[in-house]
Every structure is written in C-alpha cells, then in structure tokens.
From TrEMBL:
A Pfam entry, by short name: Methyltransf_31
Protein name: Methyltransferase domain-containing protein
InterPro entries: Methyltranfer_dom, SAM-dependent_MTases_sf
CDD domains, alphabetized: AdoMet_MTases (cd02440)
Domain Methyltransferase per the UniProt entry, residue ranges: 3-46
Length: 50
C-alpha cells in the first residue's frame, strides 16, 4: 500500500461536531463546508478555542 495522506471533504458540516470527531479519531485532514455562514463561524470559533 502506498503511504498516502488521507484527505476528507465534509459537505454540509453544520457546526463541525462530526468533523472534529473524525479528525480526532482518524487523525486526518478534513476540509469542511456548509451553506450556513453562522454554522461555519461557530465551527471556526470552536476550532480556534481548542
């Protein structure tokens, strides 16, 4: 198997709860997008508070 870095695109991530869990558990790079600006702002604030 090739040694490749896994990347995930989380479409409709909401507030990022699942995104943060996956990133933590799997240790992978995740790009998250959502149509709700408020959800993205919340997720960003949550990320930077960690």
């Amino acid at each position: 198997m090739l040694n490749q870095k896994i990347k995930i695109l989380d479409i409709s991530c909401g507030t990022g709860h699942g995104t943060f869990m996956l990133s933590d558990i799997l240790g992978v790079e995740i790009t998250a997008i959502d149509i709700s600006k408020e959800s993205i702002i919340y997720a960003e604030q949550k990320l930077w508070s960690i």
